[in-house]
Design a protein that fits this description.
Layout (H helix, E strand, L loop, with lengths): L1 H14 L10 E3 L3 E3 L4 E2 L5 E6 L7 E6 L7 E4 L11 E5 L5 E5 L6 E4 L11 E4 L5 E5 L2 E5 L7 E2 L5 E4 L5 E2 L1 E6 L2 E12 L5 E6 L2 E5 L20 E7 L3 E8 L6 E5 L5 E7 L4 E7 L15 E3 L7 E3 L3 E3 L2 H5 L7 E3 L10 E9 L6 E4 L4 H10 L3 E5 L10 E5 L5 E3 L5 E7 L7 H33 L2 E3 L3 E4 L10 E4 L3 H7 L8 E5 L2 E7 L5 E6 L8 H12 L9 E7 L2 E7 L7 H4 L2 H4 L4 H21 L14 E3 L5 E3 L4 H6 L9 E5 L5 H6 L4 H17 L15 H10 L9 H6 L2 H14 L10 H9 L16 H7 L4 E5 L4 E6 L3
Parallel strand pairs: 25-33, 45-47
Antiparallel strand pairs: 1-10, 2-7, 3-4, 4-5, 5-6, 7-8, 8-9, 10-11, 11-12, 13-22, 14-15, 14-21, 16-17, 17-18, 18-19, 20-21, 22-23, 23-24, 25-26, 27-28, 29-33, 29-34, 30-32, 31-32, 31-34, 35-36, 36-37, 38-39, 39-40, 40-42, 41-42, 43-44, 46-47
Helix pairs in contact: 9-12, 9-16, 12-15
The protein binds 2-acetamido-2-deoxy-beta-D-glucopyranose (6 copies).
């Protein structure tokens, strides 16, 4: 938080540069401005001058003056900063803008280019559009709009001038406080039919798809709207995309941020803030070539990748394990013999057109003939979809990066071998002779199997060992869970002395202990209120004992004696996560790589509980104090399964206590008592943001607003500076794109509506790969602090009186 205040102050001093000169919008030949002086566009909207985004480095740039000063839209010397305030911008008599230092050496830091022709009376002017132009007799000889930085303003042309060779594209900043060229670019590619690629270094992340007359094929949400109009121009001289404001009183800009997201912001005068209007990429399927060659991505499917009709995965085993990058191959190879034809694949994003050919005048019928005539042609489509379609676009070789849309997609005609075409009869025959018998067989085997499994179900309870032969898998695994005597445990824990007490959980106190053989243990002594029968308790324990995962705390055994019920776990020397992240001194021990490892560990453990374990357990009380850390700081979820064991059995007449902790509970859980795996996902999201920020969601304070941590993170994210959320130890050791990614995943997890939240499977995937992330919507409970704190004065809420379920509120330890 200190860091933010510091940054704020720094921005404040930085942009309240005193205006020495009266507001002029021009520099005439021989004239100059030095650091501290500025040029202002005639409508007062934009300002040109020197600024300092962070440290002592100074840059010449253009920013909004009337609104949002501090939002820089263009930087001249982004890669060669000035070290002091000695910078001077001068317009030479030759019509060249020169930025130099006024020291002895007169070093030129940056200069505009010139045509080399002699000029008279050049003038540099900052236009109302934010464009800095040098003109001679009304003719523009140089303009800043030809050198886009990270901000794409109305009127700029992103693309290529085929005459001059000028290639104008977006390059991200390195950080929000460092304008030097970052890794990401958004650039037109004019191989084949032009498209725009968003790249990280040389690697393509996102492809706009070809222009189809209305929009880019891969950007279905680029639609007519009340704010701006857009066009794509492709002629002999130039290829470019640009947009213009419909009403110039609305301010909008598009930015390629340091995390590689291309986002459009709109200024809201009422709140004096930028809001995110739309992002170019929408979901995983926008990740370039996610499904490989001839694969097709459909975000509504799980897994999203499938093969096009007539194709099968190239490597079946890779495909099944989620590695789709090798794509698909034809079931029947093309031979270029007679009889080959096309099948229609409806409503898709057209494949990569770098290896394509087009003709604007021929129609679709003719297009088909052209494609058939050339043996390396694999597909064709209309070039322009307006007015029923016109033109012809033909692909050669592999088809890459196809996705399906529910609306605004295009038809693609895919070349097929004769045997794969229209043989409907063939298909039906196959269904009759192969598929139906196979299905019937499977059903019969299934029924026999279930009957056998029931017979085998047996439960033996021994004196010292609980053996469980109940097996619903095909392997006959035996489970042996030690049953400890009360005396052995009392002995190990020094007779449950207060000195050995580690803490108090939702179900009773937890003690540290040491068995005679030297093994360290943690004992959870369940409170006696739990009226569960012994047999039932044992059954539950057997279930928990089956959960084995490196990110879950291992249950070593249990103890049942009279009223006493205890669970014996492995002991975690590094205690719980909350003792690290929320503690000023301890938190410095946890750098970003460790926090990242912890986040990933929790995600994997939770995924196992939700999906991979046979029990499908909802944790329901995921919080920092329930995450334990082993010697190597591996995260281990504890208290898992307890929710299921002690609260889930609603047919029981006993009163069950469902324990949750405010700050971590999802809105639908707190308000309606509805819980699902998505409530755990919510808690996980809170945890991620806490791990990054080092403050508790509950009780979070910020001098600028009344939001809780979720709200704060959301605000920073919307303002395009999520990295400000970082705790100091994170900031020193961070991989900025990794942190940004984690923040975005955290925000996706805490979205208001459970349906919007990703599953833990997607979370694990999003954290461990660099697939592109969807844009989060508003988080749940981010402003409702008053409501929550008001309620918490009563320690119990009856939110489900019909089945007498009560919830005890625990303040986080
Ligand atoms: C700023 O300082 C750095 C490091 O001392 C130096 O390499 C660089 O040339 C300086 N820049 C200017 C414009 O003087
Ligand atoms: C630096 O430039 C200024 C202005 O053009 C000039 O007066 C001064 O003599 C130059 N100094 C050197 C060392 O070239
Ligand atoms: C532009 O917007 C302003 C403010 O909303 C409005 O007053 C003005 O009439 C609009 N101009 C046009 C041409 O629509
Ligand atoms: C912006 O809001 C301020 C008050 O917050 C108001 O005075 C001003 O007229 C508004 N500007 C526009 C363009 O609506
Ligand atoms: C497009 O096809 C038409 C008709 O076949 C032909 O006259 C024209 O030259 C073609 N254009 C290009 C660029 O190949
Ligand atoms: C097929 O198209 C490719 C790519 O344009 C071209 O190189 C090749 O010569 C064509 N083949 C025939 C037979 O027209």
């Amino acid at each position: 938080m200190e860091g933010q205040i510091f940054l704020l102050c720094c921005c404040f001093t930085l942009f309240s540069v005193t205006m020495l000169c009266s507001a002029v919008d021009t520099i005439s030949a021989g004239g100059s401005i030095s650091d501290g002086e500025t040029v202002v566009s005639s409508d007062g909207c934009f300002e040109l001058g020197f600024f300092d985004p962070e440290n002592s480095k100074r840059y010449l740039g253009i920013w909004y003056k009337k609104i949002s000063p501090g939002t820089v839209v263009w930087v001249a010397n982004r890669n060669i900063p000035l070290n002091d305030t000695s910078g001077v911008l001068r317009l030479t008599n030759q019509g060249i803008l020169v930025l130099s230092t006024e020291t002895k050496a007169n070093i030129t830091i940056w200069s505009s280019s010139s045509s080399g022709e002699p000029v008279t009376n050049p003038v540099a002017r900052l236009l109302e559009t934010g464009n800095l132009v040098v003109s001679v007799g009304g003719k523009i000889v140089w303009q800043s709009f030809d050198y886009i930085g990270d901000t794409f303003l109305p009127g700029m042309k992103c693309g290529r001038n085929l005459v001059t060779g000028l290639d104008n594209y977006l390059t991200s900043w390195k950080r929000s406080s460092d304008p030097s060229s970052g890794e990401y670019t958004n650039k037109l590619d004019h191989n084949g039919y032009p498209q725009i690629f968003l790249r990280k270094g040389p690697v393509i992340r996102f492809r706009s798809g070809p222009w189809n007359g209305l929009r880019f094929s891969g950007m279905p949400n680029l639609k007519p709207n009340p704010i701006y109009t857009f066009e794509f121009v492709y002629n002999d001289q130039e290829i470019y995309y640009k947009y213009e404001l419909i009403n110039s009183s609305v301010v909008t800009r598009m930015v390629l941020n340091q995390f590689g997201s291309l986002q459009r912001f709109v200024w809201i005068n009422r709140t004096q803030d930028w809001i995110l209007y739309v992002s170019a990429e929408m979901d995983n399927c926008d990740h370039y070539s996610l499904c490989g060659a001839y694969g097709s991505c459909n975000i509504a499917n799980l897994p999203p990748c499938g093969c096009l009709r007539g194709f099968k995965p190239k490597f079946q085993s890779d495909w099944k394990s989620g590695d789709w990058s090798n794509g698909c191959v034809r079931k029947t190879e093309l031979t270029c013999k007679d009889g080959e034809g096309f099948i229609k694949i409806p409503s898709v994003k057209l494949p990569d057109t770098r290896n394509s050919w087009f003709n604007r005048t021929i129609d679709l019928k003719e297009c088909e003939k052209w494609c058939l005539r050339n043996c390396s042609c694999t597909a064709y489509s209309s070039l322009d979809i307006r007015g029923g379609g016109s033109g012809c676009l033909i692909w050669f070789n592999e088809l890459i990066d196809i996705r399906e849309y529910t609306e605004n997609g295009q038809d693609l005609y895919l070349r097929m071998a004769a045997s794969e075409l229209g043989s409907n009869g063939e298909m039906k025959r196959r269904v009759r002779t192969i598929i139906i018998p196979v299905l019937l067989g499977a059903v019969i085997i299934g029924v026999i199997y279930v009957l056998l499994a029931k017979k085998k179900k047996r439960l033996k309870l021994g004196e010292q060992i609980i053996e469980d032969k109940q097996s619903d898998g095909n392997n006959d695994e035996d489970l042996k869970l030690p049953l400890f005597s009360f005396n052995a445990i009392a002995d190990a824990t020094n007779n449950f002395s207060d000195k050995n007490k580690l803490g108090e959980g939702g179900y009773g106190p937890v003690y540290k202990g040491k068995f005679r053989d030297g093994q360290d243990i943690a004992v959870k002594r369940l409170s006696k209120e739990s009226k569960q029968g012994d047999g039932q308790f044992k059954n539950e324990v057997i279930l928990i004992a089956k959960l084995q995962h490196r990110n879950l705390v291992r249950l070593l055994g249990c103890c049942i004696q009279g009223e006493e019920k205890m669970l014996v776990y492995e002991y975690m020397p590094n205690k719980s996560l909350d003792s690290f992240i929320f503690d000023r001194a301890q938190s410095s021990l946890l750098d970003w790589p460790q926090r990242c490892k912890i986040i990933n560990g929790i995600a994997r453990g939770l995924l196992y509980l939700h999906q991979d374990s046979r029990l499908r357990i909802i944790h329901r009380d995921l919080k920092a104090s329930n995450i334990l850390l082993d010697e190597e700081m591996n995260a281990k979820i504890s208290d898992f399964g307890m929710a299921k064991c002690f609260g889930g059995d609603e047919t029981e007449a006993n009163t069950r206590r469902v324990v949750g902790t405010y700050g971590y509970m999802s809105p639908e859980y707190v308000i309606d008592g509805i819980f699902s795996v998505k409530s755990d996902v919510f808690s996980f999201g809170v945890l991620v943001l806490e791990i990054i920020n080092g403050k508790r969601n509950r009780g979070f304070n910020h001098p600028d607003h009344k939001l809780n941590l979720l709200g704060h993170a959301w605000k920073l994210f919307q303002e395009g500076r999520p990295e400000d959320l970082m705790d100091a130890p994170v900031r020193d050791s961070c991989d900025i794109s990794e942190v940004g990614r984690s923040i975005q995943v955290g925000l996706l997890c805490v979205q208001q509506s459970p349906e919007d939240r990703p599953s833990m499977a997607s979370v694990v995937l999003m954290l461990s790969s660099d697939i592109s992330l969807p844009q989060p919507k508003e988080p749940g409970f981010f402003t409702e602090r008053q409501l929550i704190e008001g309620d918490s004065s009563s320690s119990k809420i009856d939110f489900c009186s019909t089945n007498k379920m009560t919830m005890t509120l625990l303040t986080a330890r």
